[in-house]
Automatic annotation (TrEMBL):
Record carries keyword Hydrolase: no
NCBIfam families tied to this protein: aroB
Biological role stated in the UniProt entry: Catalyzes the conversion of 3-deoxy-D-arabino-heptulosonate 7-phosphate (DAHP) to dehydroquinate (DHQ).
Record SUPFAM superfamilies: Dehydroquinate synthase-like
The 3-dehydroquinate synthase N-terminal domain, residue ranges: 62-174
Domain 3-dehydroquinate synthase C-terminal: 176-317
Keywords for this protein: Cobalt, Lyase, Metal-binding, NAD, Nucleotide-binding, Zinc
Matching CDD domains: DHQS
GO molecular function terms listed in the Swiss-Prot or TrEMBL record: 3-dehydroquinate synthase activity; metal ion binding; nucleotide binding
A Pfam family annotated for this UniProt entry: DHQ_synthase
UniProt gene name: aroB
EC number: 4.2.3.4
This protein's name: 3-dehydroquinate synthase
InterPro entries assigned to the protein according to its UniProt record, in alphabetical order: Dehydroquinate_synthase, DHQ_synth_AroB, DHQ_synth_fam, DHQS/DOIS_N, DHQS_C
Amino acid sequence: MQSITTSTYAVHFNQRAYDALNVHLSNKAYSKIFILVDENTHEHCLPSFMGQIQGDYNFEIIEIESGEENKNIDTCTGVWEALSELDGDRKSLVINLGGGVLTDLGGFVASTFKRGIDFINIPTTLLSMVDASVGGKTGVDLGPLKNQIGVINQPEMVLIVTSFLKTLEERQLRSGFAEMLKHGLIQNKAYWEALKEVTNFLYIDDLIYDSVVIKNEVVLQDPTEQHLRKILNYGHTLGHAIESYFLESKTHKTLLHGEAIGIGMILEAYLSKELLGLSDTELADIKSTFLSLYEKVSFSKEDITTILSLLKFDKKNSHGNINFVLISAIGKPDIDIIIPDELYENAFAYYAEQ
């Protein structure tokens, strides 16, 4: 596959990714190269990655704990301290080998260590390949609140090696697939239809490529999310609130990102019907598609009340308004939509219907 060029770097795929990395490392003469991993990528991804490195370099491995619950400033502090203790300097490189939690956190750590050092992202999950690979968003959560602390800063390159998908459980693959479905809903109905035909998530290289292209085309037009880039948040306003709530809940099973935004996309499709005229046919298609992939979740009135209270922390909000991305049809988004309060419970009721 051909590399995809963003505004400042390239996304390389499979063997081309390793070739580009080896050229980059030989040209840059980094003082030290740090590889950030979690316990899963340390075991399942690092050995094959190291086997592709050509040349003799000074590598240091830093391991963090996996999981959204560890995407916080405390983890950053541990990594910053490790970088300092291992003599990291401004000519060092951080290679982030992991999923979206790790690349978000690792990019933020690199962007702030000694006021910024180079980093390379190697996403190892389907979610991070199609979502975190483009756009330069880095950051961590503030308690249960998603991505409240961070900066937009671009990596040196992104390397997508799809063989890493074989290390994932089916649930993780399905979670990542939700972001691909979102790309269809906000930009390309034909792509949405093609995704609905997928039965095996391990052999979708071309569709992964298409998702990266779709996101890149949006980001190129609006790199700092002033206008168009907001469409990438479809399903995420309610989805992030649901994800945050379940992350902190003592009585509910934690939801993966894609599972939560899948619910968010159904809820926001209902709101789209009410406010922008999304057709009943497309609304039903969206609901049935997500429910065929993700287990249905039950919400009590108390759950819904708490989830809605979290909406005020959404990053798209401004001037006291909760701003939604909705769709008037599949592939046709609209931004900065204000939702009448009475529609929220109706949306959850629609989700709960058989």
